[in-house]
Amino acid sequence: MIFDLDGTLFQTETLLLPAYHSTFDKLREEGLYQGETPPEQAILSGLGMLLEHIWRQVMPHAEESVHRRADELLLAYQVEGMAGGQGVLYEGVADALRELRARGIKLFIASNGLEDYVKGVIRYQGLEPLFEAGGLYSAGEYGTRSKVDLVRQLLDKHGIRSAWMVGDRSSDVEAGHANGLFVVGCDYAGFRKEGELDGADATIQRFSELAELLEA
């Protein structure tokens, strides 16, 4: 099983939003941004996208150099938050992953996030032993332009011929189907747009339903 991270395993907003506000405070302090911090919904609605695309949505008139500085700051504040105990998994995630692992299912991550963020979340949440060695894939580490490409690299590198793609955004549905995978849409985060998961082969309202779906 290949999992998206934000909005699938991890309640992103519990870590992201404090870091988001700190990022804009610092950008203003450095003279790189003026005005009020954009609404939280501006970044929440972009979850699942590459960071460069998120900043274009959040700060459409800012220069690319400001976007890259925002990358650095957001990551630094998120890592600091993780170390301080911020960030929460969705209910039942840890237990369900342990159950899947106990059944012999190999677990992977495929996220459009930055490398240190993705690996940091898994490490600080104590989930690292449950995933395959070298199985945490991020667009930040592999330099992919789409999740389709990221998942393809994962499948090729690990010699995987059959898998489930589990995620909450249309990019996860696209990545799964483009690579011939069974797609499970997670419909509980609230970040998705209407109809995003219509192409999924199955949808779940709670993460714990994944084990029930596997039985079925």
Automatic annotation (TrEMBL):
InterPro entries: HAD-like_hydrolase_sf, HAD-like_sf, HAD_2, HAD_sf, PGP-like_dom2. Gene3D superfamilies: HAD superfamily/HAD-like, Putative phosphatase, domain 2. It comes from the Bacteria. PANTHER family: PHOSPHOGLYCOLATE PHOSPHATASE. This is HAD hydrolase-like protein. It comes from Paenibacillus gyeongsangnamensis.
